[in-house]
Task: inverse folding
């Protein structure tokens, strides 16, 4: 799965009042791994910036006058996010501004360019009802360092949100895990295909590794208030994996 963590900074609080985007930051995640790819854009809003917004991000109109307009970078921006799941903290705010910018160019709503938009604020509120779920609060809760965050910045906030999202959803994704032979591996007489395949050596986890694994599952359960996926799978009837003899051409796999 390809995901884009997105954040914006703006000239004010309301897109309906004609406020504009001044900065966009995007971070790419593929299969729950940060790829190192990002997109960072400063934009000329062609209007004044509210004092309240200036206090948040520190970007003045004079600083941004030499930057491109949204229309100049729209194609580049949309190509970066196209067909990805987009993660935004307090998504309705950013979407209102993105839709307004795209509407000026008659390009249609932002949601039409991605497969899905996920509001990580709504997700956090579901996981932690009644608690503060700002980005700063989540960084503290999940041990993500934000000591370098003096002012808001779209790219910096996207980087922090990416780390928070991965911590917040750790162990809770649907995984396709092969637990021994599948049903299709059994014939009508109930005999399974040979498992493990010839040449595969299965190394059992050590006691220390198993202990560390259990501690991680306990930490996941404490954070999410529900059992980790591995704990659920562990409650199923295990399929024993016999260890074949080692050969010169064998492949080693550590299991457990």
Result:
């Amino acid at each position: 799965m390809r995901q884009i963590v997105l954040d914006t900074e703006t000239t004010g609080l309301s897109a309906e009042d004609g406020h504009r985007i001044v900065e966009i930051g995007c971070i790419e995640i593929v299969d729950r791994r940060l790829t190192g790819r990002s997109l960072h854009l400063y934009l000329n809003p062609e209007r004044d910036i509210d004092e309240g917004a200036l206090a948040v991000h520190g970007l003045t109109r004079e600083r941004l006058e030499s930057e491109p307009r949204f229309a100049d970078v729209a194609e580049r921006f949309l190509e970066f996010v196209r067909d990805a799941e987009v993660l935004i903290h307090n998504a309705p705010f950013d979407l209102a501004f993105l839709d307004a910018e795209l509407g000026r160019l008659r390009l249609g709503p932002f949601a039409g360019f991605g497969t899905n938009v996920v509001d990580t604020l709504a997700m956090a509120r579901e996981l932690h009802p009644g608690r503060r779920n700002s980005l700063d609060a989540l960084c503290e809760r999940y041990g993500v360092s934000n000591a370098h965050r003096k002012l808001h910045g779209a790219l910096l906030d996207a980087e922090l949100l990416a780390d928070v999202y991965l911590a917040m959803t750790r162990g809770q994704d649907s995984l396709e895990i092969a637990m021994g032979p599948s049903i299709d591996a059994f014939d009508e007489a109930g005999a399974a295909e040979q498992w493990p395949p010839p040449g595969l050596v299965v190394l059992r986890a050590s006691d220390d590794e198993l202990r560390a694994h259990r501690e991680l599952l306990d930490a996941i359960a404490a954070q999410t208030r529900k059992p980790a996926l591995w704990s659920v799978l562990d409650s199923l009837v295990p399929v024993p994996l016999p260890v074949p003899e080692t050969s010169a051409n064998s492949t080693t796999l550590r299991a457990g």
Summary: The beta strands are 2-10, 21-30, 33-42, 85-88, 116-119, 200-204, 251-255.
